[in-house]
Amino acid sequence: MEKFKTLKDHVYDYLAQHIRDGSIQPGQRISENIICETLNISRTPVREALIQLAAEGILDSQTRKGFAVKSMSEETIRQIYQVLGILDGYAAKLSCGRLASQDFLDMAFYIKAMDIAIETGNFEMYYKQQETFHNIYIDKCGNEVLIDTIAKTRNKLLKKGYSDHADEKLKEVFYDTNKEHRQIYTLLQAGKGDELQQYISVIHWKPVYASYDVIV
After folding, report:
1. Helices (DSSP H) in the chain: which residue ranges?
2. Which of 71, 115, 187, 199 has its CA 20 to 30 A from that of 46?
3. Side-chain half-sphere exposure of 176, counting CA atoms within 13 A
């Protein structure tokens, strides 16, 4: 069942999308008035969304200056990758035995769809598909605190910076990560929880990807 979205949630998604696609750059101030006018809503849900993004470490709250997108060092991104690897790997292990046949059909579909997105250079679509792929087993792990923690940690990597790199190099990186998605799928099917946990934490979320500032 899809979660009901409040006005604050819609503003959050709107801002997240603009941060993700580079429309709002690190260091750029965010105007509450412009958001209110653009979305035709009151200030309260806008303020609530900005506060949530600041609490998640995506925005800086600046005294008397409002909010701005936080810049993030490569070392910080590496550290987030290490944490995500542990959390994601544990969720995958817990999901073993909880996945239905339709879940595996869906994951297989998204793996193929990611190949198409990579080939066509549609990296934004790749991002959405890989997120859905991972969420299939994360949402079945049975630990709501873990699910929430993964989402909040992953949100810190909203800005991917795809436009900063050559298309062919990104394609190479994403083809590699999608091969890893296939291995995750295989290990989930086999129910090899311990091996799966190790593979995701050490291989799939390896810190070297942090230099590309991408979500894998």
Report:
1. 7-20, 32-39, 43-55, 74-95, 101-119, 123-138, 144-155, 167-190, 193-198
2. 71
3. 14
**Count of positions (residues) in the chain:** 216
Cα→Cα distances 45→34, 49, 59, Å: 13, 6, 16
CA pseudo-torsion sign 144, 149, 155, 160: negative
Q: What is the pLDDT of residues 127-175, one digit of tens each?
A: 889 999 999 999 999 999 999 999 888 888 875 555 445 567 888 889 9
Identify the three-state secondary structure at position 9. Answer: helix
Q: Set out the domains of the chain in order of their start, with CATH numbers.
A: 7-69 (1.10.10.10), 74-212 (1.20.120.530)
Tokens for 154? 């992953």
pLDDT above 70 covers a percentage of the chain that reads: 90
From CA 8, how far away is CA 21, in angstroms rounded? 20
Q: State how far the Cα of 89 lies from the Cα of 209, in Å rounded to an integer.
A: 17
User: Which residues, 6+ apart, have CB-to-CB distance to 154 below 8 Å?
Assistant: 84, 131, 215
Question: What is the tens place of the pLDDT at every residue in 188-211?
Answer: 999 999 999 999 999 999 877 666
